[in-house]
Design a protein that fits this description.
The structure is a single chain. The chain has about 150 residues and is mainly beta. The chain is about 10% helix and about 40% strand. It has one helix and ten strands, in the order αββββββββββ. The strands form three sheets. Strands 7, 8, 9 and 10 form a four-stranded antiparallel beta sheet that branches. It has a three-stranded antiparallel beta sheet with strand order 1-4-5. Strand 4 (about 55-60) and strand 5 (about 65-70) form a beta hairpin. It is elongated. The mean pLDDT is about 85.
Length: about 150
């Protein structure tokens, strides 16, 4: 069938996650992390020399909607004396190429270390989630220079 109703009553279950993903991507865009006004909007607080906490929130990227229901504690890898590094706190999307199951994870992506000057941030993988199996997409949530 070329046409179908999504949000109307049809007498059978019919709204899919793909329907929602298409709507989200169409309304909010597919190239940035859009934070919906809920929770603490992923606020990041430094909790120690090498630790941070990412707050609750709802986000959408490339139509994928995800939620952090409870704050997440993150730990950064330690540095030697007089060494600087720029790490990113990212949201990483993965799709299993066999099962098709999808997941997101908030984590630290370690940058390159530098003795002097500005260290370089790590490169992100930004594939199009819609392209198929085994996709990894990483979106920056925060940049921290250690």
């Amino acid at each position: 069938m070329a046409e179908r109703i999504i949000t109307g009553k049809t007498g059978e279950p019919h709204v899919t996650s793909l329907d929602e993903r298409v709507l989200n991507g169409s309304l909010l865009g597919r190239n940035t992390l859009y934070k919906l006004p809920w929770g603490s909007n992923f606020d990041i607080s430094i909790t120690g020399d090498l630790t941070a906490k990412v707050g609750t929130g709802i986000g959408v990227f490339q139509g994928i909607e995800f939620m952090i229901e409870d704050p997440i504690d993150l730990t950064f890898e330690s540095l030697g004396p007089s060494v600087r590094r720029e790490d990113l706190i990212i949201v990483e999307y993965k799709k299993d190429s066999v099962s098709g199951l999808e997941s997101v994870e908030v984590k630290v992506k370690k940058g390159d270390e530098a003795q002097s000057g500005k260290p370089s941030a790590p490169a992100l993988r930004r594939q199009n989630i819609w392209d198929g199996d085994g996709t990894v997409y990483q979106q920056t949530s925060a940049t921290l220079t250690l």
